[in-house]
Design a protein that fits this description.
The structure is a homodimer. Chain A is an alpha/beta fold. In chain A, 39% of the residues lie in helices and 14% in strands. In chain A, helix 3 packs parallel to helix 4, helix 4 crosses helix 6 and helix 6 packs parallel to helix 7.
Chain lengths: 444, 444
């Protein structure tokens, strides 16, 4: 078995019951376990035994009463849950989503450094800007700021956080018990940041963490998002529907990184994939159809309307998706949905089912071979450096992927059979952070 | 062995190396373990095996370069560390310090609800307002707001958090998979809070947690602090030097709670105690003196100056403490230190050593019997409902307390030998939170 140089990276996108919007209604789902730690410990330990690079938790900062009715919650806060999972895992990376719109950089830098310490170097931060008025209304505002302004704030937020992570030099700790000197104060720096959004003196109140900085992850695919990713991200989560689109996006991210003076290998592109696995393609399609049967059109329409920022309840379900208005919310997702409906000539009702399994991520129902073939094709044709695995039904879907798909990828030499490092940075083949990379005035 | 109705409550005040300011210089201290999870797991599991009510972590939001030189750090962020410890303990309560000055109530309510879920009802929140300019300077300000204003904000913060915890009714979750109804939306409430400091729509993005709300803890002993504790706190940490002072404080808290219409039992008063344990009193004093030998006068003076908000380096070390100016920082601590120096007629040098072991908390070097006698005396004479145990040297001091003092307390029927409940609320003998208690306009 030949081991090619380049292997793919796999992240498990954790959710309570699964990524299919009706997963919680499936008879196999134990709804009560959604808020129980034991449920997530099992999933994390399975993913670690299978040698996944990392676990990831998304987040949003609001839930509506109608969303709650149909099973939507924010659920357990990502850093809380991943901190707990750090105590019962040893190797797998832990990527938490935290918004730059509703937090202070000092607190966020401190929490990620803390997670990186307690996990011995496994922390990652999925940087989001948050895009809905419903979220802004939980944080002293009526409306979310404009897309451009949110990213401007995110840039400065990251600048401050990075300065704080670097505020304790790599060799600042002396720990001389006899002399009573813990740190070389010349290597502990105040940062004196003064910007448009934040003023932060520093230093950070915790020494530099095992990875130097957490691995920076990004998931917005708008023009602002791609620019942000090119400048800062070390891994990018993205929703792509076709090989061609994924290739275009992949190329764009790598080019953008190069424009910022970074090597294309310093940012890994991981499209989401929502697999449904069967012994035959027919069995897989049957499983998928069964999950679709649990969907509720009213809820699906509510979700889609929220996602595209337009009320779609007035349009006929069996008619086409109308032209969507420009939005200041999640721009890239709206564009993807519009293109999908147009390309496949879908009615609204058909579109709801196309989105039910993965909210716009690539869904595939097939045999382990078919799925492995697809992953290999994307990986070998510059569409992906790896994948964000999103089981539609969390427990069973993850088990199937690990049992039937992973061994095929390993046989083909595409995925590790053992961890070769101990930190997330090592799993992803990333270098120690270059303390020169973050600079507010950097222009590509 | 008779079991009296009332038993004392014991909290372990966690630190890296110990509460003595020179603990890290002791040859037995493994400095490297200060940021390692394994170190805290060991301590937490020991405290749980000994049936402590809870673990507690303090916090501050800044460190200076000079502080870093002498071993001061914020260390691992409390909620991060306690979330990790939730995964490897089953019964012990987990009390994290979070400031109301540098956080958003939506985030804090969410994080405590999350910790309460993953720990099956063991979360507690030590509410602090933070009192130094150095902290404010990490959060976009030059100076910390006035004492009164900080407490005003803290009150509104707690009001918002409590409304958010109550925003999912106890019976809101239906989880009807067949009908596809997860929650009864009539029992999920928007809170529409609009105040002087915060505007928050709600509901919280996580269902109500096992304890309803985390146990609320408070540690300020100023007039504002006592008022705040009387209104909200379910446990109070406090520094008291003598039985008489402790009795006065105990009475004040209970009276203040009654003035807010609360029962005196609904708030537990837990003075800090820093024990050094020897087979003989002489051995204990010898151990204490050994720790004192590791102190550094320059650092001790720096610490004391910070604590009282006045530069003391200009005063003769062997002269008396000067009259301290009024401060807008930690008022109650300054008062305690001034009174201690005056009562015991201490020079500044002597005062530094009196404070080295516990920063103003009650320090006692003695035999297990002597220490048990003191605890029993305070407990039976309305000075304490229990204690905040602060080992001067973390590992050895905790081991000694568990091995030699706890069995005496248990023989006397003063402390549990088994947990009788599973939640922190049950350990402390507290009721399910009364959703009527939090009201911004409440006036005692």
């Amino acid at each position: 078995m030949s081991q090619p140089e380049r292997q793919l990276h796999l992240n498990l996108f954790l959710t309570g019951m699964g990524h299919h919007e009706a997963a919680w209604r499936h008879p196999q789902s134990d709804i009560g376990s959604n808020l129980k730690l034991s449920h997530y410990v099992k999933l994390a330990q399975k993913a670690e035994a299978a040698k996944f690079d990392s676990l990831f938790l998304a987040d949003r900062y609001a839930v509506s009463r109608q969303g709650a009715k149909y099973g939507l919650q924010g659920g357990i806060e990502p850093l809380t849950l991943l901190s707990a999972l750090a105590a019962v895992t040893e190797n797998i990376g832990l990527i938490a989503t935290v918004s730059t719109s509703f937090n202070e950089p000092y607190n966020v830098a401190r929490r990620f450094a803390s997670l990186d310490h307690i996990s011995n170097g496994r922390a990652g931060w999925n940087v989001i800007t948050s895009g809905t008025d419903g979220e802004a209304q939980n944080f002293n505002s009526k409306k979310i700021p404009s897309h451009g302004l949110r990213y401007e704030k995110a840039r400065e937020f990251l600048e401050v956080a990075s300065k704080l992570w670097d505020s304790w030099g790599d060799d600042a700790i002396i720990a001389d018990q006899e002399a009573g000197i813990f740190a070389d104060e010349r290597k502990v720096h105040e940062i004196h940041h003064r910007g448009n959004f934040f003023s932060v003196k520093g230093p950070l109140n915790i020494p530099r963490s095992p990875q130097g900085r957490p691995v920076l992850v990004q998931a917005g695919s708008s023009a602002d998002g791609i620019d942000f990713a090119g400048q800062y991200a070390e891994a990018v989560f993205t929703a792509q529907q076709t090989l061609e689109e994924a290739q275009r996006f992949y190329q764009e991210i790598k080019t953008r990184a190069a424009a910022f003076g970074r090597s294309p290998e310093s940012v890994k592109v991981l499209p989401g994939i929502c697999p449904v696995i069967g012994r035959t393609e027919a069995e897989a399609k049957e499983k998928e159809a069964q999950l679709h049967d649990y969907t509720n059109t009213e809820f699906s329409l509510y979700q889609l309307s929220n996602r595209v920022g337009a009320d779609l309840t007035a349009y006929p379900l069996d008619g086409p998706l109308p032209q969507l208005p420009a939005t200041d919310g999640h721009q890239s997702r709206t564009k993807l949905i519009q293109e999908l409906a147009f390309r496949e000539n879908l009615t609204i009702r058909q579109l709801l089912l196309r989105l039910a399994g993965g909210r716009g991520h690539y869904t595939i129902a097939g045999t382990p071979e078919q799925i492995s073939d697809q992953l290999e094709k994307w990986f070998k044709n510059k569409a992906a450096d790896g994948f964000n695995i999103m089981p539609q039904l969390m427990s069973e879907g993850l088990d199937d992927f690990i049992t039937y798909v992973l061994p095929l990828l390993q046989e083909r030499g595409l995925f590790r059979t053992e961890y070769s490092g101990t930190t997330l940075r090592e799993h992803l083949g990333l270098k120690w952070p270059d303390t020169g990379t973050v600079n507010l005035s950097a222009q590509a």
